[in-house]
Automatic annotation (TrEMBL):
UniProt protein name: Single-stranded DNA-binding protein
SMART domains: R3H (SM00393)
Organism: Streptomyces cinereoruber
Signal peptide: none
Record lineage: Bacteria, Bacillati, Actinomycetota, Actinomycetes, Kitasatosporales
Coiled coil: none
GO MF term set: DNA binding; RNA binding
Residue ranges of every copy of the R3H domain listed in the record: 106-170
Length: 170
């Protein structure tokens, strides 16, 4: 291989290493936050869909960690942004890291996939577009994926924070 060229495997390995590094930085940052807040939690790191994924879980149930989730995941979203900033500060690169606390996002992802499938079924049956309630970018992404899996198209409309998904007939 000549200088300046890389194979796809090498690039994939570099990406994985970079994402693993993001996960490590995020884990260190979050461990510090857990210590400051005097909360117990274990940190799990993974790479999912070309992004680092970090989860905080607790053996003592998720009651203590609910403080870090907040109402409708608002605190979780803020902590995710702070964690992304911590990763950016260390690496100099923008991070797309996903943070889950006490399984909140995993449960939400399942509920949203079901909502997307129901909306797709409604559009298939009625032939008319269906507008869903406003959602966060994470929520819209999950719904868009569920609608695509059902064989339909969808679009996001509106301005944040009132941006919503419209499911379109085939």
């Amino acid at each position: 291989m000549t200088e300046g060229t890389t194979s796809a495997a090498a690039e994939g390995g570099d990406t994985l290493t970079r994402l693993e590094q993001e996960g490590e930085i995020a884990a260190d940052y979050l461990e510090g936050l857990l210590d400051i807040a005097d909360l117990d939690g274990d940190i799990d790191m993974d790479v999912e869909a070309d992004r680092a994924a970090v989860s905080i879980i607790s053996d003592s149930g998720s009651r203590d960690l609910q403080k870090l989730v907040g109402r409708d995941g608002e605190v979780l979203e803020a902590l995710q942004e702070l964690t992304r900033l911590a990763v950016h500060r260390e690496t100099g690169d923008r991070s797309r890291l996903m943070l889950d606390i006490a399984g909140f996002r995993a449960k939400k992802r399942s509920e949203l996939a079901e909502l997307g499938a129901k909306a797709a079924a409604e559009v298939k049956a009625g032939g008319q577009p269906v507008k869903l309630d406003p959602m966060t970018p994470f929520e819209r992404k999950v719904v868009h994926d569920a609608i695509a899996a059902a064989g339909l198209r969808s679009e996001s409309e509106g301005e944040e924070p009132q941006r919503f998904v419209v499911v379109l007939p085939a």
